[in-house]
Amino acid sequence: MVHRNITPALKAALADTPIVLLTGARQTGKTTLVRRLASQGRKAKYLTLDDPTTLASAQCDPVEFIGEIAGPMVLDEVQRCPGLFPAIKTAIDQDRRPGRFLLTGSANVLLLPKISESLAGRIEVLNLWPFSQGEIEGVREGFIDSLFSGKLTPAGTGESRSESIGRALRGGYPEVVGRKPARRAPWFGSYITMILGRDIRDIAHVEGLSTLPRLLDLLAARAATLLQFAELSRSAGIPQTTLKRYVALFEATYLTREIRPWSTNVSKRLVKTPKRMFVDTGLLGHLAGLTEKRMAGAPDLAGALVENFVAMELEKQAGWSRAKVRTFHFRTSSGAEVDLLLENEEGMIVGVEVKASSTVGKGDFRGLETLRSMAPDRFHRGVVLYTGRETLPFGRGMHALPISALWKMGARANRAS
User: Fold this and answer.
1) Mean local confidence (pLDDT), 144-157
2) pLDDT value of residue 116
3) Is the pLDDT of residue 205 over 90?
4) For the chain, which terminal residue's Cβ has fewer other Cβ atoms within 10 angstroms, N or C?
5) Cα–Cα distance for residue pair 164/262, rounded to 1 Å
6) Residue 207: pLDDT band by 50, 70, 90 thresholds?
7) How many CB atoms neighbour CB 56 within 10 A?
C-alpha cells in the first residue's frame, strides 16, 4: 500500500481540531486513507454518503443522523449532503473535543459561503492530491525545504527526457499508476464522464452540461498559459459570465486549479492574469491527445505539460514541507516571466523556471534575473528545472536542476505512520 505523505499532517490536525476536512479529486485515495485512520487508535464510525440509504437518512433528518453517533465519525463524500453542516456545527458547539469529525469531499464545499461561515474556527482543511512522484517512489520529498535552505543538497543524476515526460503523461491517479499506457484512456474517459455527469450536478444546476466536455478540451489546449476569458469565450461560444461559472465548477471538483500572479509593491508593471493548471497531467495529456511518440516528433508540445507537472508536484509537497509556501507565477508587462514562484511565510521567494528541453543556457535564467532585480531583498534562489541529467551552477544563487530533483533532492525514505 502506498504511504501518503500527508498522513502526519492529517493526524496532527485530528489531535487538536474538532472537524478535519480532507478534500481532493475523486479517485485520489481519500477513502482508503480515512478508513485506515478510522481503524487506528480511538476507532471511529465510518459512513459514506455514496451509499444511497446512508445519503437518504442524512437528508431526511441531519440532526438525528449526526446525533446517533456518540464517538468519532468519518463521513465520506460529505458534499453530497450540504444540509449536514449546520448539524455538525451544532454538535461541535456542544462538544469541541478534537477529532470528532473527519470528513472527505470530492468537491470544495467551502466555496459555498453559508457552509464556510458555519465552520469558521472549527475546521482544518487538507488536500489529498493524486500520488506525488515521491509517494510512488516510496519517499517523502524535501525539495521545497531544500530550495529555501542555505545550500542545495545533492539531487543525484537525473532521468532521461523521455522518462520525465512519461511520468507526466502517467500522472498520479492511483488507478492509473499501475496501468499500461494503452489502458489509461478508457479510465480517463469514464472518469471525466463521472465528474461532469454526477459531481458537478451535485453542487450546481448546469443547464448546458453538453458544452462542458468541449470546454474542458479547450482548457487543456491552454494549460499553463495565461487564461484570457474573452478569447476563451469566443472560442467556446459561451458568454463570459457563464464561462467563468463553468471554470469555477472545474476547480470546485478538482479538475483544474488556478495559479495566481505574484505582485509586489516594488513595481506595478506586473501582469495580473492567472494561469490555469490541471490537477493531474495524466488527465491533461489524455484531453490534449498527447503521447510520448507525438511529443518526440513535436518537442514544443511538451512545454505546457512539463510545466503543469512541476506546478502540481510542488503543490503536493507544500502539504507536508516544513517551509510553508504559496505558489504563484511572475510576468511583467514587458514580457519577462518566471513560470512558478514560491513565497514562504517570511516573504522570501524562490523562482522556478521549467524547460522541457534536455539542455539549458544562460538565456534561460533571464526571467529569474529580472525577478531578482525587482525584489533583491526577498529573492533567495532561482532554479531552472529541465529534462537533462546534471545539477549545474549558473552564477550566484542560480542552478539548473534535473526534473527528478523534485522527488530526489532532500528526500527521505517513508516510515509507517
Assistant:
1) 88
2) 60
3) no
4) N
5) 28
6) low
7) 11
Angle at CA of residue 341, ends 335 and 346, nearest 5°: 130
Residue indicated by cell numbers 479529486: 25
Predicted confidence (pLDDT) per residue in 254-301, tens digit: 999 999 999 875 445 567 899 999 999 999 999 999 998 888 777 778
Domains detected in the chain: 7-127 (3.40.50.300), 133-413 (no CATH)
Residue of 191, 151, 251 lying closest to 27 (CA atoms): 191
Distance CA 81, CA 329 (A): 36
Residues 6+ apart with CB under 8 A from 377: none
Cα-based distances in Å from 137 to 134, 201, 260, 266: 5, 36, 30, 41
Question: What is the C-alpha separation between 412 and 300, in angstroms, rounded?
Answer: 34
Query: Could you tell me how far CA 232 lies from the centroid of its own chain?
Result: 23
State which H helix or E strand residue 341 sits in.
Answer: strand 337-344
Give the end-to-end CA distance of the chain in Å, rounded to a whole number.
12
Residue 23: which H helix or E strand, with range? strand 19-23
